[in-house]
Amino acid sequence: MSLAARLQGRLDRLELTPDEAARAAGLPVDLLVRLLRDEAPLPRGQRLVKLAETLETSVAYLIGLDPDAPVPMEYLQDDQGELGLLAADEDAFLRGYRRLDIASRAAILRVLLKMAPEPEELERKPVRLPTRR
Hints:
By secondary structure, this protein is mainly alpha-helical. Helix content is 52%, strand content 0%.
């Protein structure tokens, strides 16, 4: 069952419109409509938890897992961009990075470190004391 079908099923069962559910969950009003059209990513962290509570279901159900399966931590962690801690380009880069498989992530990290290596620790130069003449 698709995310849209799961969402629509919960909305129908609770007799809620997408706007009503979004407001109750504290989400942008148009988010559920965009989710139903597959035009937006599912929220993560506390926003996802609040949506599940509003729809009277579990996070596992919303993301398409068996109800007894543990929810992967990536779904329960708030995106830094949503917290206002990342610039838009950093947030976009991080979102793209998270969609990659492990091998692709490793390749991207190698390229990044070649282009922008970690700063070396400052070497302490010995202090020369003035000589007496």
